[in-house]
């Protein structure tokens, strides 16, 4: 996860890496270690998320931490409803977590308080993504679930592709791209 050059770290680009047993932040220009936080020991499958000056990192069978991106100071932590493959999404003051068990949790990014939890039959390997007022979650059977980016659970749509999916959706040029097991889908206006 590359952290934009913000005031909190002198405008320099930084790189955050989560790997057993720690979360570490480095200066991108010279590789200098800025800070590390230990105690995140597990088989790590997720990447950190960044939003509003905070880093969020963790994995199932360990813990999820929210830390100050500038100095690594612990802000909050939890060991409940953690993702194991999909990376967290920090968006509009909230943190979205999707697990391969089918549980999706939305937390307040500042406090860690659970805002809502939803469980589906199919789990998630792909990470949640967001655009505008919506969060997109592609489950392992290729159904993209669209929810409102809100403090309450508000489903908007479910769109099946008809094939398995493990890749994270991507936005580019006004389109949503989904990669299924056999095909690539482009959803949006024609070029």
Walk me through the topology.
Blueprint lengths: L1 E2 L10 E6 L2 E6 L5 E6 L10 E3 L2 E5 L5 E5 L5 E5 L10 E3 L2 E5 L4 E6 L5 E6 L9 E3 L2 E5 L4 E6 L6 E6 L9 E3 L2 E5 L4 E4 L4
Antiparallel strand pairs: 1-2, 2-3, 3-4, 5-6, 6-7, 7-8, 9-10, 10-11, 11-12, 13-14, 14-15, 15-16, 17-18, 18-19
Unreliable segments (pLDDT under 50, ≥5 consecutive)?
A: none
Radius of gyration: 17 Å
And the CATH topology of one domain?
Lipocalin
Number of contiguous helices:
0
Strand content of the residues, in percent? over 45%
Quick one: biggest sheet? Answer: 4 strands, antiparallel
Task: Write a concise keyword list for the protein shown above.
globular; 19 strands; 4-stranded antiparallel beta sheet; mainly beta; 47% strand; 191 residues; Lipocalin
Gist of the model:
The protein is mainly β and 191 residues long. The chain is built from no helices and 19 strands.
Describe this structure in words.
The chain has 191 residues and is mainly β. It has a domain at 80-187: Beta Barrel (Lipocalin). Helices cover 0% and strands 47% of the residues. It has strands at residues 2-3, 14-19, 22-27, 33-38, 49-51, 54-58, 64-68, 74-78, 89-91, 94-98, 103-108, 114-119, 129-131, 134-138, 143-148, 155-160, 170-172, 175-179, 184-187. The chain has a four-stranded antiparallel beta sheet with strand order 1-2-3-4, with no helix packed on it. Strands 5-6-7-8 form a four-stranded antiparallel beta sheet, with no helix packed on it. It has a four-stranded antiparallel beta sheet with strand order 9-10-11-12, with no helix packed on it. The two termini are 30 Å apart.
């Amino acid at each position: 996860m590359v952290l934009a050059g913000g005031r909190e770290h002198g405008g320099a680009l930084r790189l955050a890496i989560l790997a057993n047993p720690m979360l570490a932040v480095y200066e991108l220009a010279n590789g200098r270690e800025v800070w590390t936080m230990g105690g995140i020991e597990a088989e790590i499958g997720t990447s950190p998320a960044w939003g509003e000056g905070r880093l969020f990192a963790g994995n199932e069978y360990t813990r999820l931490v929210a830390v100050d991106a500038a100095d690594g100071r612990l802000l909050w932590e939890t060991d409940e409803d953690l993702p194991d493959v999909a990376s967290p999404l920090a968006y509009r003051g909230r943190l979205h977590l999707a697990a391969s068990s089918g549980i999706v949790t939305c937390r307040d990014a500042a406090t860690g308080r659970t805002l809502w939890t939803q469980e589906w039959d199919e789990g998630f390997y792909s990470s949640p993504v967001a655009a505008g007022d919506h969060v997109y979650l592609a489950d392992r059977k290729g159904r993209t679930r669209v929810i409102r980016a809100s403090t309450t659970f508000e489903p908007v749509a479910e769109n099946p592709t008809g094939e398995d999916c493990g890749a994270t959706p991507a936005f580019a040029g006004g389109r949503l791209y989904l990669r299924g097991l056999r095909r690539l889908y482009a959803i949006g206006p024609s070029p």
